[in-house]
Amino acid sequence: MRHAGITLFGFFILLITSTAVFAVPTTVTVRVKSKDSKFIGTSMGGVLVTIRDVYTDELLAQGVTQGSTGNTDRIMNASATSRTVLSDAQSAHFTATLDIDEPTYIKIAAYGPLAQKQSANRASLTQWIVPGKHISTGDALLLELAGLVVDVQSPPAHIVFERVPRQITITANVTMLCGCPITPGGVWAVQQFEVTALIKKDGRSIGTLPLQYGGEPSQFTGTYEAHEKGIYEGIVYAYDASNGNTGLDNVTFIIR
Questions:
Q1: Nearest to 49 by CA among 61, 37, 35
Q2: pTM of the model
Q3: Is 123's pLDDT higher than 80?
Q4: DSSP E strands: which ranges in 20-118?
Q5: What domains can you pick out in the chain, each with its CATH number?
Q6: 100-103 CB contacts, 8 Å cutoff, 24+ apart
Q7: CA–CA gap between residue 193 and residue 211 (Å, rounded)
Q8: pLDDT tens sequence across 41-62
Q9: Which of 176, 170, 182, 180 is nearest to 226 (CA)?
Q10: Residue 103: left (phi > 0), alpha (psi -120 to 50), or beta?
């Protein structure tokens, strides 16, 4: 009986070990950088990161980048051909531990910044990962989001004015996606950006209004004189001709 018991137990262990799937925890770190600027982190609501199996579309992990925008000098002065690591320990990131038992082809997608969804963009990349081979050193998996944050602050949406002619002040806050400010002579200098409001009335384009630097970081403003009653829309865009970076927001107002 003792011999039979040992044999039965050994058979049971052999059966389990021969059929069990052993997943290996594998760490993946994702960082998201704003085009021509810094990392998108906590100060801008972070970026939503999803990690999926390319072949099955199974969601393997999901989270939001957290942390700082990073070191300005390291990021903005790095040579485009160098292997300089742009991030530091405080730079915004999302880290996931995936339990995989075989090489897996993953898709990493980013959407943000979450605090300024009118200016949010998307980016993605694909990457093989191998069980136990972590992707967490250096900048790890780095995505870049193009665009600029444009936030129309005046006039308030759907405000009603009672007479014509009427002067309408249009003011917008414009920043990089990381929240980095635009200032005269700064790292992101006022003179490199074109900020303009496209004016429509009752659905028809009727003119443009260039917005000028308003004296405070990232603030751009201009005054439009309306001479007719109707429903107006101001579509404000910011554009950097040096690299094509573009952002947009809009607002409606009524004159009756």
A1: 61
A2: 0.88
A3: yes
A4: 24-34, 48-53, 59-64, 94-100, 104-112
A5: 22-145 (2.60.40), 148-255 (2.60.40.10)
A6: 100/23, 100/24, 100/26, 100/129, 100/131, 101/21, 101/22, 101/23, 101/24, 101/131, 102/131, 103/128, 103/129, 103/130, 103/131
A7: 10
A8: 999 999 999 999 999 999 999 9
A9: 170
A10: beta
